[in-house]
Amino acid sequence: MRAISVRNGKGDADALFVDSNVPDPILGPRKILVKIHSFGLNRMDIMQREDRYPYPLLPESGNIIGVEFSGIVEGKGDDCSDGFSLGDQVFGLAYGGAYAERIVVSEKMLMHLPSNLSFLEAAGAPETFFTAIQAIFLVGDLQPGQTVLIHAGASGVGQSAIQLAKVGGASKIFTTAGSQEKCDLCKSLGADTAVNYRTREDFAEVIERETNGRGVDLIVDLVGRNYFHQNMRSAAMDSRMVIVAAMSGSKVDDFDIRSLINKRIWLMATTLRTRDAEYQGRVRDTFLEKVMPHLVSGEIRVTVDKVYSWNEVSEAHKRLESNVNAGKIICRVD
């Protein structure tokens, strides 16, 4: 089959190319073969392309980049349930291998495509919403009436988290983003206050002012080092902070553990790709319960920033690296 490969095993965006000589995936028990229509781009794809992915990849990950996709069921392995049939339109999450014509995944990681969601939109939903489900509900334990701060609000995960916090009953949602356009997008998704960090406005001061000094109950952080001290200032007593990524770096200067103790802050971190299939299956079930009805009704949406042919995957990666996108970048398999 054809798939996206990296020349010499690692490199910049221009090292990506459509490889016509890639072995077909092998269909095993309780696995589903999907002919891919589209796949979504994520920052982990850049790190894998550069051979600097920070977590150990599971054997199921393989060498082909990509973890989220949409397509059509083309085959079923032994012992599969009756949940999926040949020809079904589906979308799902994988440990790797989505930048390809075909993929084999556990049926636990697959979902039926609702009629109001396109293949392109669906390809950008699983990774971001599954990650946001962890941060908001499974790890962050958001309760109705609580306040939330979500960083990188215009990113795929950020947009998903804003919408989940909204339907989860958050009383006020704060977010940060890098332009007025991105801030407006965050507000359209449910954020009450969006701080444009490029104006050098201090989000900690905004939160202190708008919460009368109380702070927020839950912080979802994708930025890391650059925001850590401001996060400590923004946290309420007995609050929770969930670290999902560290885009600005992972080493914090002058960190005083007393800042956690004084406010009794619960500091947590979570990943998704390194979880086993059983756990990811539980996240999928939570998605079907808490997100899918709102996707079907239109209350929750997937924002697609730009669609590329997979022949233009290098340009798609460059756009993701430039951080100008507001929403998901999708590649269509031609």
Automatic annotation (TrEMBL):
GO terms for molecular function: NADPH binding; oxidoreductase activity, acting on NAD(P)H. Keywords: NADP, Oxidoreductase. The keyword Oxidoreductase applies. Gene3D superfamilies: Medium-chain alcohol dehydrogenases, catalytic domain (3.90.180.10), NAD(P)-binding Rossmann-like Domain (3.40.50.720). This is Quinone oxidoreductase. The lineage of its organism: Eukaryota, Fungi, Dikarya, Ascomycota, Pezizomycotina. Residues 11-331 form the Enoyl reductase (ER) domain.
